[in-house]
Amino acid sequence: KTRMCEIFRAATYIDPKGIRNHRIERCRPSKYVKSKLGHREIYFNLSNLNARETSNMEQMSKSETIALREKYIGPSCQLFFKKDPIKIVRARGQYMFDEKGDAYLDCINNVCHVGHCHPDVVKAACNQIATLNTNNRFLHDEIVLCAERILSTMPDELSVCYFVNSGSEANDLAIRLAQIHTGNKDIISLEQ
Q1: In what order do the strands lie in the sheet with 95-98?
Q2: Each residue of 100-149: pLDDT tens digit?
Q3: Membrane-spanning regions, if any (predicted)?
Q4: Is 65 part of any domain?
Q5: Comparing C-alpha atoms, which of 58, 35, 50 is closest to residue 122?
Q6: 96 falls within a domain
Q7: Measuring CA to CA, which residue among 65, 60, 57, 55 is closest to residue 1?
Q8: Are 106 and 98 in contact (CB under 8 A)?
């Protein structure tokens, strides 16, 4: 049986003092989610989603999650707490929340810039994904405008951008660029 997920949207509003603020609003669950993008409206059909394909649906027990993790996730992807791992079910700002609703200050993940689920980031991601989910091998305005904006903050010697998907890819690219630039192949890696 298909269960509907809760739908949230990022909203901008002006408070009584005239200050622009953001909030996450819960929308009425619906068979379709409508995304307005300028003159275009895109409808996402949610009726055929598998129950486990959305994060806001009824959750598995912690033991079920552990069993599936052991079955499907490689052993090199280790949990931080082996004896009694924390099951994180949602996050907001600098906090993550477990299945009991307990809050944990997130000092590990890459959220130090704006926090988890920042309304501006959620809105920008939704708008871009609903417009075009692409990579840098196609010609599209947003990637060149993003590169121009980033490079406007950099010294003149840093004049091009390389967009990658992860920190691992960025490190790999940095090593290869350094090897090409210096002609050296040796690498020093430090681990604690």
Answers
A1: 88-92, 95-98, 103-105
A2: 999 998 887 766 678 898 898 889 888 888 888 767 778 888 889 999 99
A3: none
A4: no
A5: 35
A6: no
A7: 57
A8: no
Rounding to the nearest 10 degrees, give the CA dihedral for residues 71, 73, 79, 85.
-40
d(CA 170, CA 173): 5
Q: How many CB atoms lie within 10 A of CB 60?
A: 15
Give phi and psi for 59, each to the nearest 5: -95, 155
Q: Answer whether residue 180 is part of any domain.
A: yes
Q: Kindly provide the b/e burial profile for residues 13-26, where b requires at least 16 CB atoms within 10 angstroms of the residue's own CB.
A: eeeeeeeeeeeeee
d(Cα 5, Cα 54) in Å, to the nearest integer?
7
Domain that holds residue 171: 134-185
Q: What is the pLDDT of residues 62-72, one digit of tens each?
A: 999 999 999 99
- Domain-located, residue 139: yes
Question: pLDDT by residue (tens digit) across 39-58?
Answer: 333 334 333 434 334 444 56
The whole-model pTM stands at 0.53
Is the dihedral angle over the CA atoms 51, 56, 57, 59 positive or is it negative?
positive
Of 24, 134, 176, 90, the residue nearest 146 (C-alpha): 134
Number of domains present in the structure of the chain:
1
pLDDT at 35 over 90: no
Rounded CA separation 130/36 (Å)? 9
Does position 159 have pLDDT exceeding 90, yes or no? yes
